[in-house]
Design a protein that fits this description.
With 218 residues, the chain is of the alpha/beta class. It has a single domain, classed as Class I glutamine amidotransferase (GATase) domain (Rossmann fold). The protein is 26% helix and 33% strand. β3, α3 and β4 form a beta-alpha-beta unit. The radius of gyration is 16 Å and the shape is globular.
Length: 218
């Protein structure tokens, strides 16, 4: 049986407890043994982390000691996967470049704020089971503008600008919503959707996230 570790906390505005319960139930139904931790100190023990096949961070705007980031890096590089969404993974630790290097992106803005309706476009050229059979769909939530590692493999995008502001002078820009990357032997999956659990009531959003969680595991 594969083992998943969900680490949740940080800013309560991203519903870390609720998302940990949601993702935990999905993974349990998929046959995983799920452990949950509401403290980052779980990252202090490299040998403990190495016993898991999947790490799921749900922790927005926290502070991560460099030692903890190094332990995560080693464990993922050895084959443990990592999968997460929204600010819980790519706005987790703004001051830790190691974490950003592992995960592949960092949130910088959401010009439309949390009540903007936008479209998620599945890349037609993405030959991946992660998006097979999923069509473009609309979401009313935060639209994430992220700075992205050029090494990532983009599976879905969204178009900016969405609101008036200085960024609009650049014209239309496609920004990744779903991507994968490698970290040593480990697989990384990120989905910028997930401002609140209700986002995953959208069938396409749920399917993308569920597939990513299962795919990333060792």
């Amino acid at each position: 049986m594969k083992k998943a570790l969900i680490v949740y906390g940080g800013w309560e505005g991203h519903y870390p407890t609720e998302l940990s319960e949601l993702f935990g139930s999905w993974l349990t139904e998929a046959g995983f043994s799920v452990t949950k931790s509401d403290t980052l100190d779980v990252f202090a023990d490299e040998s403990y982390l190495s016993g898991f096949d999947l790490l799921v961070p749900i922790w927005t705007m926290g502070e991560l000691p460099d030692e903890y980031a190094k332990n995560v890096s080693k464990v993922v590089a050895a084959g443990c996967g990592m999968a997460g969404c929204h600010g819980g993974m790519c706005d987790a630790f703004r001051n830790n470049c190691e974490w950003q290097f592992i995960t592949g992106a960092q949130w910088v803005a959401h010009p439309g704020n949390s009540d903007y309706e936008y479209e998620v476009n599945i890349k037609k050229s993405a030959d991946s089971p992660l998006v097979a059979g999923i069509s473009d769909f609309r979401v009313k939530s935060e639209q994430y503008y992220i700075h992205v590692d050029p090494a990532v493999h983009v599976l879905a995008t969204t178009s900016f600008p969405v609101a008036d502001g200085p960024h609009a002078a650049n014209g239309k820009v496609d920004v990744p919503v779903v991507f994968t990357k490698k970290w040593g032997k480990g697989k990384i999956y990120y989905n910028s959707l997930g401002h609140s659990p209700e986002t995953f009531d959208i069938p396409e959003a749920k399917e993308l996230m569920l597939r990513g969680l299962i795919w990333a595991a060792r």
